[in-house]
Amino acid sequence: DITPAYSTLEADAFAEMLRIAPDAKFLFIMRDPLKRLISSLRMRHVTDVAPVVALQGIDQLCELYLEGSQLGAERRSTYARLIRELEKVVPRAQICYLFYERLFTDATMDALNDWLGVSRKPGEYNKVIWSTSGNDQPSPEMTRRLHATLADEYAFLADRFGSDIPEKWVAPGEGRP
Q: pLDDT, tens digit, for every residue of 7-66?
């Protein structure tokens, strides 16, 4: 199943999944927290039944978030909490962590298929089904401000995954973990 809504679950929900299927495997695909946050902000604004304001651009939406009026958007971008909740109840051997930025390669798919215990199939990675990457992007200053709100998140992930973190996750001016 694919949905960022799983990122809001607590340990008891994962325990229930294991109760139903003790051998279940948990695939956790992480996207750059900053990109995940921006995507969540966009989606929440678009899907709100009656958006509070008519926005003049992505920076205004981000400003609303920074002011605290878009609460909840960050929950799907904060992996540290979810990793802790997941690992409270799920054996580490039943969890596979992947990075979205490295997902669409034969090497990653081969490793995933091996972990799942399924046969390998050749992949086709050049067809984009859905992308918001060409949409309005935050200004460099807004990007810096948003990235700063995720500093603890990036620190947790750097400590946890080290050099496995995709280079694209590193903010300009920062070094590798």
A: 888 999 999 999 999 999 999 999 999 988 888 887 766 655 345 555 677 888 888 888
Other C-beta atoms closer than 10 Å to the C-beta of 79 total 22
In order of 33, 113, 116, 177, the CA distances from 26 in angstroms are: 19, 13, 10, 26
- Where is pLDDT greater, at 136 or 154? 154
Contact indicator for 85, 17 with CB cutoff of 8 Å = no
Cα dihedral angle (76, 78, 80, 81), rounded to 10 degrees?
-60
7 neighbors 75 (Cβ within 8 angstroms): yes
pLDDT at 67 over 90: no
In contact, 51 and 45? CB cutoff 8 Å: yes
Low-confidence winner among 17-31, 117-131, 147-161 (lowest mean pLDDT) = 117-131
pLDDT at position 53, please?
Answer: 56
Place of tokens 């929440």: 44
Measure CA of the first residue to CA of the last residue in the chain; give whole Å: 31
The residue among 100, 86, 96 whose CA lies nearest residue 36 is 100
